[in-house]
From TrEMBL:
It is an enzyme of class 3 (hydrolase). This is ABC-type nitrate/sulfonate/bicarbonate transport system, ATPase component. The keyword Metal-binding does not apply. Residues 5-238 form the ABC transporter domain. SUPFAM superfamilies: P-loop containing nucleoside triphosphate hydrolases. It holds the Pfam family ABC_tran.
Length: 267
């Protein structure tokens, strides 16, 4: 298996209290993601999940260690990585089609090709019939589908997703999880998906990386071997419950540790 992404001893600190102190968000993260893998990341609140993704996106630089993409150090954002955040960040004055085309304009894709690509990706996320709708005419789930189509239209090799379904209702979230798995299987992209939801992490991920409480380190990486493509409700199988419990236990220990630490230390 080829390694696509490699975190090598990655740490990140932030200046706090007017620069008088530094807060360690992440410490010595070692993690490899295989080419074409769908990896989910969970961890207690504030453990550095978004920081991890921002480092991979090139929006932040590490204070120690290196982040490699195809063996090359990440030094800034690039079209080889598409990012989808929790907030859809669509332009309200543009239709779904216009929003997907928007990013392609900046990269100089000719008008006709832009329109074709936008249609293709809106079709991929099941929104072909809604291409001419404005964001305010779309549901939350639809808006997030547009955001996914917009990221995919650049044909990035890696899709980085930071709690993209967190703002959606449970039913929409589950249907977008299926949609994402379908898109992932069809496109073969490498996906790193941050979530607060244990069920979501287990349902989506081929592996689930569990981070420790801050400073975030990789506590454990759990291999998930589930048959999601069977017709039944995989979430109610004993196998799903087994993985769910495994991740829950790892995470619960960290949440308790974080609380004990906080109570014992006002800093
Ligand atoms: N720019 C910044 N300046 C100072 N501190 C920061 C900055 N960005 C993040 N932090 C701190 O770093 C830690 C990790 O933040 P981060 O947002 O990565 O965590 P998270 O695991 O994604 O949190 P959550 O689960 O609550 O979304 C937090 O304590 C946060 O307050």
């Amino acid at each position: 298996m080829t390694t696509k992404i490699s975190f090598q001893g990655v740490g990140r600190t932030f200046p706090v209290r007017d620069g008088r102190e530094r807060l360690t968000a992440l410490a010595s993260i070692d993690l490899d993601v295989a080419d074409g893998e769908l990896l989910t990341v969970v961890g207690p609140s504030g453990c550095g999940k978004s920081t991890l993704l921002d480092l991979l996106a090139g929006l932040l630089t590490p204070t120690s260690g290196r982040v490699l993409l195809d063996g090359e150090e990440v030094t800034g954002p690039g079209s080889d990585r598409g990012v989808v955040f929790q907030q859809y960040a669509l332009l309200p004055w543009r239709t779904a089609q216009g929003n997907v085309e928007f990013g392609l304009e900046a990269t100089g894709v000719p008008r006709k090709e832009r329109a074709e690509l936008a249609r293709e990706y809106l079709d991929l996320v099941g929104l072909a019939a809604f291409a001419d709708r404005y964001p305010h005419e779309l549901s939350g789930g639809m808006k997030q589908r547009v955001a996914i189509a917009r990221s995919l239209a650049h044909d990035p090799e890696v899709l980085l997703m930071d709690e993209p379904f967190a703002a959606l209702d449970a039913q929409t979230r589950e249907s977008l999880q299926d949609e994402l798995r379908r898109i992932w299987r069809r496109t073969g992209k490498t996906v790193v998906f941050i979530t607060h939801g244990i069920d979501e992490a287990v349902y989506l991920g081929q592996r689930v990386a569990v981070l420790t409480s801050r400073p975030g380190r990789v506590k454990s990486v759990v291999d998930i071997d589930l048959d999601r493509e069977s017709t039944g409700d995989v979430r109610s199988t004993p196998e799903f419950a087994h993985y769910r419990h495994k991740v829950w236990t790892l995470l619960h220990d960290e949440v308790v540790r974080a609380r004990t630490f906080k109570e014992g230390s006002p800093a």
